[in-house]
Amino acid sequence: MAVTIMNMMTSSVAAFEKGALRNRVQRCVQSGMRRFWHEEDGQSLVEYGLLISLVALVAVVAVTVFGKGVKNNLYGNANSAISNLPTS
Description:
Elements: H1 2-18, H2 20-38, H3 41-83
């Protein structure tokens, strides 16, 4: 068994030195890179992430801009309604 493994390793090294294995590895890496480049699953995930961050940014800006006015208006109406309640 050890002899066959050594023979396989020796033949693999010889093939690599000749360039056959190197060419196979290079083609495999190139095809993987092409698939990665043309795959659209990751792109849609990034688009959803950008959309969610845009919605969150709009929400933060809206609360910052309109927050004090809404707070004063709501609490002002609530305070005046509570102060106008009849006391017995």
